[in-house]
Design a protein that fits this description.
By secondary structure, the protein is mainly alpha-helical. It starts with a helix and ends in a 27-residue tail after the last helix. The N terminus and C terminus are likely disordered.
Length: about 475
C-alpha cells in the first residue's frame, strides 16, 4: 500500500521542466541534424545539375533523372543495413554512444560531398551517401532506446513527438535555405559545408550534456529519477531477474506477433508516401508548377512547416484526451494513425488531378497531405515502446529497416514512371500508388494493432515465489 501511495504521489506531482526535457531537446536537434544531412541533396541536386541558371561560378553535372533518383535513394541502401544491429548495440552499449558516433561521422562525410562530386562524379557521391546511410542507421533505434529510458508512460506521446518533430524542423530549414544558399555567392557546395558543420557542433554539445538513461546522468535530481523509474515500473507485470541490457532478444516472438507485424506494415506504407514526397517535391515544383530554385526550396519546405506545427497540435489533443481518460491508448494510436494516413490518402488522389495552372491549389494539397502526416507520431511511431519498453530500440530497428526498403524503392519507381518530368499524368500515377499504400497499411493497423505491453517484453525467467507487484498498474 505504501508503494502504491508513493507511486500516485509521483504521478500527480508537477515536476515542471527537468533533465528528461533537456534530453528530449538534445534528441530534437539530433534528428534536426540527421534530416538536414539526408535531405540536403534533394535541393542541392537541382543546382548541381542546372548550375548555369542558379550560379554559374560552380560546377555543373550532366546527370539524368534516373541518375538523380539513384543518388537520392542510395542513402537508404546503407541506412537499412544498420537498423537491426543498431537496436541491439543501443541496448547493450547505450543509445548515447551510438547516436553520437553515427551523426558525428555522417556530418564529416557530408562536408566531403562537393570534393567527392568533383573527383569521382556521381559514382563517388553515391558511395558516400551509402556510407552516410550506414552511419545514420543508428539514429532511430538509438532515439527509441533513449526515449524508452527517459519518458514516463503518460508523457511518452508528448516527449516522443517533441523529439521526432526534429525530423520536420531539419527538413524545413534545409529545404527553405538550400535554394538561397545555392544561388548565393557561396554556391551549392556550402549546402553541404553548413549542414555538416552544424552536425559537428551538435556532436560536441551532446558529448558533454547527453545521457542515455537517468542512471547515466549525474545532474538529474533524485525526485525526477524516482518519478521516471516508478512510472515506468508500473508497465511491467512480472519481476525481471536480469538487467534490461542482458535480456535475451525474443526474435521468434517478434515475428509471430500480429501487433508487431502490422506495425511493420504501418511504418512501411508511411515511409513510401513520406519519402516519395520528400525526395520528389523539388522536382515536382520545378517541372510541373514551374517554380525557380529559390521559390522551389521555400515552397518545398512549406508542407513540412505544416507537419511540424500540426504534430504539436495533435500532441496537445492527445495529452488532453489522455489526462481526461477519454480514450484508451490503443484507440488513441489507431485514431491518430488514421488521421495521419487516410486523410493524406484522399488529398494525394486530389493532387493527381491538379492542372499546371493550379499551382496554388497544388501547394495547399501538398501542405495538407504532409501536415496531416504529423499525426502518425502519435500513432505507429510510439507503438514500439507501447508493445515492448525493453526492446523498443530493436523493434524500431526492425520496422525502420523494412520501412526504408520502401524509401529505396520509392524514388526509383518515380524515376521509372516519370520518364517525362513535365507530364502531370505520370505524376498522377506516383500519387495514386502512395494513396493505395496508405489505404491498405492503415486498415491493417486499425484491425490488428495493439498498445499494451506484450508478454515477450519480459525475460523468460522463473517466477519468484515471494514476488509482489511493485506498483499499481496504470492500465
Amino acid at each position: 500500500m505504501v508503494t502504491t501511495v508513493k507511486n500516485r504521489r509521483f504521478e500527480d506531482e508537477d515536476s515542471g521542466l527537468g533533465v528528461r526535457h533537456l534530453q528530449v531537446f538534445l534528441l530534437f536537434f539530433a534528428l534536426t541534424v540527421a534530416y538536414a544531412l539526408r535531405v540536403n541533396l534533394s535541393v542541392a541536386v537541382v543546382a548541381m545539375t542546372d548550375a548555369a541558371s542558379v550560379n554559374p561560378d560552380f560546377p555543373e553535372y550532366k546527370w539524368s533523372e534516373k541518375t538523380k533518383s539513384l543518388l537520392l535513394s542510395s542513402f537508404f541502401w546503407g541506412y537499412v543495413v544498420t537498423q537491426v544491429p543498431a537496436g541491439q548495440l543501443a541496448r547493450k552499449y547505450g543509445g548515447k554512444i551510438m547516436i553520437l558516433s553515427g551523426l558525428a561521422i555522417c556530418s564529416i562525410l557530408n562536408i566531403l560531398t562537393p570534393l567527392c562530386a568533383r573527383i569521382g562524379g556521381w559514382q563517388l557521391v553515391c558511395a558516400l551517401r551509402v556510407v552516410e546511410g550506414l552511419c545514420q542507421g543508428v539514429v532511430f533505434p538509438s532515439t527509441h532506446t533513449i526515449l524508452s529510458q527517459w519518458a514516463p508512460p503518460k508523457e511518452r506521446a508528448t516527449l516522443g513527438t517533441c523529439a521526432y518533430s526534429g525530423n520536420q524542423f531539419g527538413t524545413i530549414v534545409m529545404l527553405a535555405t538550400s535554394g538561397v544558399i545555392a544561388a548565393s555567392p557561396i554556391g551549392w557546395p556550402s549546402i553541404f559545408y553548413i549542414s555538416g558543420g552544424i552536425g559537428c557542433v551538435w556532436s560536441v554539445v551532446y558529448f558533454f550534456f547527453g545521457a542515455g538513461s537517468p542512471s547515466e546522468c549525474k545532474s538529474i535530481s533524485a525526485e525526477e529519477k524516482k518519478l521516471i523509474e516508478m512510472t515506468q515500473a508500473s508497465e511491467v507485470n512480472s519481476a525481471q531477474e536480469l538487467p534490461k541490457e542482458q535480456l535475451p532478444t525474443p526474435w521468434l516472438s517478434f515475428f509471430t506477433s500480429p501487433a508487431f507485424l502490422v506495425l511493420i506494415v504501418a511504418h512501411s506504407v508511411h515511409n513510401w508516401g513520406f519519402w516519395t514526397l520528400l525526395t520528389e517535391i523539388p522536382s515536382y515544383m520545378k517541372n510541373i508548377l514551374g517554380k525557380d530554385i529559390k521559390s522551389n526550396a521555400l515552397l518545398s519546405s512549406l508542407p513540412y512547416v505544416c507537419m511540424f506545427a500540426m504534430s504539436f497540435v495533435f500532441s496537445t489533443i492527445s495529452a488532453q484526451l489522455n489526462n481526461r481518460n477519454c480514450i484508451t491508448t490503443v484507440t488513441s494510436r489507431k485514431l491518430f494513425n488514421s488521421i495521419g494516413l487516410w486523410i493524406p490518402m484522399i488529398t494525394l488522389i486530389c493532387l493527381g488531378y491538379v492542372n499546371k495552372d493550379q499551382s496554388e491549389l497544388a501547394v495547399v494539397l501538398l501542405c495538407f497531405t504532409v501536415g496531416m502526416n504529423g499525426a502518425t507520431y502519435l500513432g505507429f511511431n510510439m507503438n514500439h515502446i507501447d508493445l515492448s519498453p525493453n526492446f523498443a530500440g530493436v523493434l524500431m530497428g526492425i520496422t525502420n529497416g523494412v520501412a526504408n526498403i520502401m524509401s529505396i524503392i520509392a524514388p526509383l519507381i518515380v524515376g521509372f514512371i516519370v520518364t517525362n518530368e513535365h507530364d502531370p499524368e505520370q505524376w498522377r500515377i506516383v500519387f495514386f500508388i502512395a494513396a493505395g499504400f496508405y489505404l491498405v497499411g492503415n486498415t491493417l493497423f486499425v484491425i490488428f494493432g495493439k498498445a499494451n505491453v506484450q508478454p515477450w517484453n519480459d525475460p523468460p525467467a522463473k517466477p519468484r515465489r515471494n514476488s509482489t507487484p511493485q506498483v499499481e498498474s496504470q492500465h
